[in-house]
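Sample entry (592 residues):
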Amino acid sequence: MLSVTVGLAGPAAAEPPTVPGCGGAGSALVPATTPRVVSVVGDSFSSGEGAGGYIGSSSSSSSWRHQSPYAPGPLAWLYLQTTNKPLAPSLTMQDGYLEDTWGFGDRLEFLASSGAESKHLAIPQVDSDTGRNRNIPQADGILSNSNVVIYGFGGNDAHYGDILQTALMAYAKTAIPASLQGLAPGPGVWKNAQLADVQAAITRERSKLASDVQTSVYKSLSTVRAAALNAMIAVTLYPVGVKPTGNTHRTPLMGGLTLDAIYGFATALNDTLRAAVQKFNSDHPQWPPIEIFDPNTAGPGGTSVVAGHEVDEPESYFNPWMLDENELAQGNLLHAFQESFHPNRLGTVALGQALAIWLQAKCPGLWPKPPTFAQVNIPAQPYKAPLQANRLPGLLLRHMAAIAAHNSGIPGAVVSGGGGGPVPRGDVYAEPESPLYNLWLAMWAAASSTTGSSDPTSTGTGDASTPGGNSREVCCGRKYKYESDDNGKTWVRIEWGGDLVGTRYVLMPPDFVPPAGTNSPAPSGVLTPPRPGGVTPGGYDNPGGIGPGGIFDYYIPPPAPTDSSGGGGGRDSACDGVYVPCPPRSTFANLA
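Predicted structure, serialized as tokens:
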């Protein structure tokens, strides 16, 4: 085996050393008795996220690695092994089962994990939704006698997933206010808002590519080299799943111009990975050079492997927005949308075949015969319905209490307020400028009083729409009465007159008890419905200081009437405990 000294510097060699069997055409044949060993490290694109058939039970933390036997790396290894060392006429793969040994000594070590960053080569990966360890430090599992290490990191270092989440929440910010009125968001409005938010996120993250991301990837390559001194390290770039331009709106919840913008970021990310590899090779001539597999040029005639099958195409190799509603109900945003915009099984098979062809050309001494693919039978991926746009607002509103509890930053955090000072301590607020925070602002604005600010971080004493605002009993000359339609569990104060034009409906704190003798007789025109109603713009206020988690608890739509259709008949919708009758179109029956 080749001996390599690990270090940051060394004498420059006339020719860089090569890995046995991996010198390209003319490589010396490695004896058949020498094991063919491949280790795979990386993130979700390497783990097979989106292809299904994941290894591990749903109750174990390891399942959230979403390691699929149909991931490109394991498939490439299997294609090469079945062609060069056939043990049977054919092999039929099974969901949940990984073929990781072959004959006597040949082995695949599959370590990639969805959500991993390059730092997780050296430290454990902690699941952001559950707080449990999702994976060991991946470098600890790399087999020291690996012939090849397939490396696939960088996307999470660059916060690629955050950009996609920004796009989803940008749609929700526009759709939720509309849905509270029983309307669909106008295409021009939500697409423009989404594009602006995504472009801002891309600008922010792109500024870090050449510094933070390239540095992290460069450092992690040293970790891989130290773990497998004699391996060919193959850095896999990301398949760009959107077209440069001309993306339409076939993909629900995503505007075509938003996809155009994402294309530019994806290509910039790949350029960053390429630059990290080039610098690493230049700085370490004493080591075998790290190779780059680019699926965007590995197709016929140098085309992309996914050309014609991008995310916006009818026969796409990529998932659209996918949703696990059980995970959303628990507030687990990452797990709920984890499979979205990753290659489906058709895509991972295409990528695995291209990777196998590339590996054989690089390492003909290990695998003399080009892969034929015919020996491996792959079952079709079971169908899962994608997330439909008209369902998102109702689902987010229904489960917002759980989402707030799991994704709101640090409990007890204080966000700086306006003239009235910070919001009350003890509430859990989303991190400022985060997608969840902006979504909360949009929800608040949709349901806030027109007599005050719709910004919950502004808490002046005259601010009627924010936690800690004006006193609950100071009505500025208005008359009021209290109503409860659930045996005193939820109270609303109905105000009219004085400085208020129209009627205002105020949600009271959960422990509120109406003072005796404070109700004024309601004149005609003041609504006192017999059941909870929905929120309309200008119809909600929160001077009692209820925090976001408490507010979200009220966003629970009622069950749709069994005989409802269209707009749900004349049924009111219960959005946040505020008593305002909605027109028939305001029901959530068609949103969830």
